[in-house]
Design a protein that fits this description.
heterotetramer; A: 368 residues; Butyryl-Coa Dehydrogenase, subunit A, domain 1; Butyryl-CoA Dehydrogenase, subunit A, domain 2; Butyryl-CoA Dehydrogenase, subunit A, domain 3; 3 domains; 4-stranded antiparallel beta sheet; 10 strands; B: 389 residues; alpha+beta; 12 helices; 43% helix; 15% strand
Chain lengths: 368, 389, 368, 389
């Protein structure tokens, strides 16, 4: 029983912090997201070299073969600096290949995901606020895939799209397709969203034919697993981003004077900051446990991640708003960074299920 | 306790409705000339500056009629009665109360006829909420003041023609509320440098303003030298939450309900989720409370009872609703709620999403919620001050 | 348009305040509720003489013939001092007779209710948390009424019970029975509840025969009307009691020193008190409007009272808890009065519908 | 990160379970002799004072084993391991750290063998939260102290045999934390007057205690004269939220779920109301967060990392849950939720209703939520103090 990080994990954390500080500071982030697509090939290459892109990919496929709990260390720290790079998307695509692909498919694609030569992303649901097999509505017809796949994370920078689609009318007749960017009949439309560090797009599919080698099975349990992994990844990012928002706001409270006192001396400010700390500590602990279950106690993953993401979705949204509010007027200028965290909190809330979804599931798993 | 209107009041309401029917075409039928004609017509009706004295060109109207006028205008989603929002809200009343005869003749028609607009220069970089501590300096030199300093968060500054400016003429005072002088400054004066600030929603509604040796004629001083705080307080007191505001919020609630009716959440109609229903009901209760609170305070004014700081109650409701209503619309729509204007799945052109980034205009601009709580605690409940003064 | 009280109403308010101060101070209240039944004949007589028992009863039946808005003035002030006397119950019984009784029934009973010679109470629903015609389950059989009527307010002191019962199987086949305390087959059991100033009991009915003269029609609209009147009355009491709780707590914050300062100087205390003020002001305004609609705009009563009681049920419950908490340890001693207000807040929450019930109704009336 | 237990830890858990199976009959089968036998048996196992040094009679056990022991005891709803709750929680550890050899020999077996109980004399009428400001006076006169003053809110005082008492021996100090002396006082001493206080739930768990010329032998002073604050701080640090507490709360959540399953609300099963479901889920998230927070802090201790004031996090969760869970049960049941024990419709003998009046025991007793927030803001986040010191 040891609910702490190993020395190696702490070294990994330091490494990511150094990278974010030296290579991906906020000015760089703002530069990256001001272009389309919001992506940086050199930083992606560096992340590949550091082993983060293949962190959870086994060594036999060119990865590092670590666990989800190690990944959370990386995600927490990249999100602290609001990294816009598609690490979560690439990792979830890898998770899909690992879980649903056959030996040949894994061997064909995973090395590229690990070495950064192929940026990948995963797109599951077609409904904006419904986590359910029925929410996969894109269907394969005689001519292949026809229609659109909306809400695809990092669609602008991805080379490979791992896309869920409906292979039959039954609730759970689902499959995954591997579609390369230059696939005939596929085009990508940008979806402008509130958080520019988390780009999103829609795939438009005009009779895209399905090569059997590029179709993976997707059982309902797989769909649940991948959604849960997505929730773990996003919650890890929420921990880092929320922590940064608290840190920025606390620093501000220690230097800003109003009515003759540091504002951090007023309980109206300090108690709100204390409550933020309580919430972040708490969803952090829930997240660490959930991340541990992915590899070590998968039967507990659903409940564990729903507790974490359910708590985090509400709490981080409140933290984002309050962090801006405690800054007063300066907090909502475009120039100041704190508002970027508010936008991130809005983005993170619905991703892979909001509080209502996850708490409903906790109730159900708890026998209600 | 009586919510009925007198026959005179009823007939005034009818007059307003008839006017609106005759003179307010549907939005898409409004031509390029519409706004100009509208402003001329409401001015002819003496509905601009409705409660201002007739002598200065106002309507001389009563509080009840004014609330009827505002309510009907808001219900009809009519354009404002004049383009100089701040001039009509508090600069004009300030000039009527404290201005010289010359100032009244110069500025009141200017405001009423929408010839230009005022902005309000209160906040400074180091004194956002603590207005009485301002440092912008004005020195009397012959027949004019020379102003140096900086204002910030000045709403509408990028377009304003004039600014009502709080300056310090005396730094050697026992109480920081003294030594403050209020000036009316032409924004085209030499030495005025306006730098728009972009907010997180991408709008540039407000600005920093730098004043470098700006000359302001003495006859543009509003009130006595060193007594500018009284002008400000009286001006802020005019910044009341009105029945028009409440009507607008009921309107917004209606559009939110329509949105709920057309939204599916987790595969089912969102309207069936009790949490959604009860949250909308709670919004309605808060807005209705604002309405009846406002009517109680209006009644006090009608009875010439002094209004304390009760209006902070509605400001707190407004702040909570500003933050929550748009955010609720976003949350309801999941990922689609993240999309901005131009997105294929954006909800109503992304208006809720954009609005969810614009709440600080109201929530912070009008005095933060914590400031409002201090006002209630100290001025109404009589609890000790926690500030330095 | 005048949303204020008349001079007469202000005089009435002063009169009630004087009564509560001189005749029904907290020591007296504690004495009254330490006995069974918690009732005081002399105070009841005095209230009758002051005209409050017949306040809404027309003059032709011995009452004063005022309106519900006048009644709220009285209830607000009696509740400020937590009066345990059954004024609400007596008034609701009168409202039932006025609304549902025929001329003879009104003439027979109302004068006694107005002059204090007959303490009456109204009992509608048999389910503890369900406001609906179906929640009236006590049914008349061949032998009359048989079973029990629970949750009867002020059952211990009442001489007359106005009791809803089911006269047929259809949803809305309801009637009211007038049952005197000494009716054959009727007995009363005390229900010990959290707030001793609001006694409650169960009627046990053993083949109580129904005299046609003592049966009133009860249409579904009547049931709604009486429930709404009950909600208006309880919310008026909530305004007074919450206001007193705020006043007591504010006074305490102005005299209690901790860590070298009056606790009222800390924003953690003062902002909470400010929030209480905001809530009380707000449900007070909503209540005044709702009370006005009873007589002047009955078509708006349901929506108006649901906004008021929905707001008040949540807010007062929070105020009760926080008022005790802001006092620290002394606040939860039996000796100190503030805890009595917490108990009142718990009592008031479910009476005639809690927040969930009323907000559900607001949504429904608003077209959702 | 590893939630697996070592084989040794697993076998210790098995040992505890086996013991419980053999020695803990169902509640209704426990005879009058049961508790005495139980206490003897767990004492023989050296599970009382589990982590205390073997030299003084403790178990010398590790932190993980201790958490396993507490968890299993809580799961089995076993009686406590000793009757002297406060003695075991912090008086004993305080004596082990600061006591003389004589004190250890006298009091440690007394506590471990459940021969009597301690209560804790910290709070005074004017200093409920602000412990360092206490005024109870002790004057050294020959070989004993003479104590005069008053304590209040002293939990368990009506039954306690001893009190650990915070007194002031020096009023002329620069810092109020100095000049405080800690005494162990026999409650049967002349001049000790205990007056029980009834709380709003009708219980008399705590009391005021008046001290009038109470003589306390010098050899009952714990630690040095004037250095009592250090003893207190170290004692309070031992008051940690533990795994046993979390297990109890999970147990309470389970009973709440059972209640929901058997309750109808507005004519429908309460379990179908999303608001009910989500609120229970939120309780579960908070309790689970307490569990994993606790494990993180335990890991820190195992690694000999200094624990700051992180335990305030769980205290705030505990306070929120204490207030909300019982209240939720009451609200769920409408009018039936108002009934106390003895009422025909009372829910589970009115236990939720009574509990809904007893939250201040935990919420105020352990330091109010606002105090906990100050601790986090000042000690962890480094924000300025708002107190006078």
């Amino acid at each position: 029983m040891n609910f702490g990080f190993t020395e190696e994990q702490e070294m990994l954390r330091d490494q990511v912090r150094r990278f974010m500080h030296e290579d991906c500071a906020m000015t760089t982030v703002r530069e990256i997201v001001s272009a389309k697509p919001a992506f940086s090939p050199p930083l992606w290459k560096k992340m590949a070299e550091l082993g983060w892109l293949g962190l959870i990919i086994p060594e036999e496929f060119g990865g590092v073969g670590l666990r989800w709990i190690d990944l959370t260390v990386v995600l927490e720290e990249t999100a602290r600096g609001l990294s816009p790079l598609p690490l979560v998307s690439n990792t979830l695509a890898a998770a899909a290949l690992l879980r649903c692909g056959d030996a040949a498919q894994r061997q064909a694609w995973l090395p590229g995901l690990a070495d950064g030569s192929c940026v990948a992303t995963l797109a599951l649901y077609d409904e904006p606020n419904w986590i359910d097999a029925d929410a996969v509505t894109l269907a394969a017809g005689d001519g292949g895939l026809c229609g659109s796949k909306p809400y695809v994370p990092d669609a602008g920078s991805a080379d490979l799209f791992v896309v869920a689609f409906r292979a039959g009318a039954e609730h759970n007749e689902l499959k995954l397709a591997l579609l390369e960017r230059d696939t005939k009949g596929l085009s990508v439309t940008d979806q402008p969203i509130i958080d520019r560090t988390k780009p999103m797009g829609t795939l438009v599919l005009d009779n895209v034919s399905l090569d059997p080698d590029r179709v993976l099975t997707l059982a309902e349990a797989d769909l649940t697993y991948l959604t849960d992994c997505g929730a773990v990844a996003v919650t890890a990012e929420m921990v880092g981003a929320a922590d940064a928002a608290l840190e920025i706001t606390t620093s501000y409270a220690k230097e800003r004077v109003q009515f003759g006192n540091l504002i951090g001396k007023y309980q109206g400010v300090k108690h709100r900051l204390a409550d933020m700390y309580v919430d972040i500590e708490s969803f952090r602990s829930l997240l660490y446990y959930a991340a541990w279950t992915v590899d070590d106690a998968p039967e507990e993953l659903s409940r564990a991640v729903s507790l974490a993401k359910g708590y985090a979705s509400d709490a981080f949204a409140r933290i984002g708003i309050d962090a801006v509010q405690l800054h007063g007027a300066i907090g909502f200028t475009a120039e100041y960074d704190i508002q970027l965290y508010l936008k991130r909190s809005k983005w993170a809330r619905p991703m892979f299920g909001d509080t209502d979804y996850h708490y409903d599931r906790v109730a159900e798993l708890g026998g209600l | 306790m009586d919510f009925e209107y007198t026959p005179e009041e009823q007939s005034f309401r009818e007059e307003v409705r008839t006017f609106l029917k005759d003179n307010l075409p549907a939005p898409k039928e409004r031509g390029p000339q519409f706004l100009k004609d509208w402003l001329t017509k409401v001015r002819e009706k003496r509905w601009v500056g409705f409660s201002w004295p007739v002598e200065v060109g106002g309507g001389g109207g009563g509080l009840i009629e004014q609330s009827i006028l505002k309510e009907e205008m808001a219900l009809a989603k009519a354009p404002p009665l004049g383009t100089d929002m701040m001039g009509l809200a508090w600069v004009g009343p300030g000039i009527i109360q404290y201005g010289t005869e010359e100032q009244k003749q110069r500025f009141i028609p200017y405001i009423l006829d929408s010839e230009g607009t005022f902005c309000t220069g209160y906040s400074e970089p180091n004194y956002g909420s603590d207005l009485a501590s301002i440092q912008t300096k004005a020195v009397l030199t012959g027949d004019h003041y020379v102003v140096n300093g900086q204002k910030t968060w000045t709403t509408l500054a990028p377009w304003a023609d004039w600014i009502i400016l709080l300056t310090r003429t005396d730094f050697d005072v026992a109480v920081k509320h003294e030594g403050i002088t209020c000036l009316l400054v032409d924004m085209k004066s030499d030495g005025v440098d306006v730098r728009p600030i972009e907010n997180m929603a991408g709008d540039k509604h407000f600005a920093e303003i730098f004043f470098t040796d700006v000359k302001v004629p003495v006859n543009q001083r509003l009130g006595e030298e060193g007594k500018g705080w009284a002008v400000t307080v009286s001006a802020l007191a005019n910044e009341r939450s009105s029945i028009g505001e409440v009507t607008q919020m009921f309107g917004k609630l209606d559009t939110l309900k329509e949105l709920v009716k057309h939204t599916r959440k987790a595969g089912k109609p969102a309207r069936e989720d009790p949490l959604v229903r009860r949250k909308l009901a709670r919004f309605e209760a808060q807005i209705a409370a604002m309405k009846y609170n406002g009517l109680r305070y209006l009644t006090k004014q009608l009875n010439d009872e002094p209004l304390s700081s009760e209006t902070s109650v509605n400001k707190l409701h407004r702040a909570s609703l500003e933050i929550e209503m748009d955010d609720f619309a976003m949350e309801l729509n999941g990922q689609a709620g993240l999309e901005l204007n131009g997105g294929a799945h954006a909800i109503e052109g992304g208006k809720w999403t954009k609005a969810a980034l614009n709440w600080p205009n109201v929530v912070i601009g009008g005095g933060t919620p914590n400031i409002q709580r201090n006002i209630i605690a100290e001025r109404i409940l009589g609890l000790p001050k926690d500030g330095s003064d």
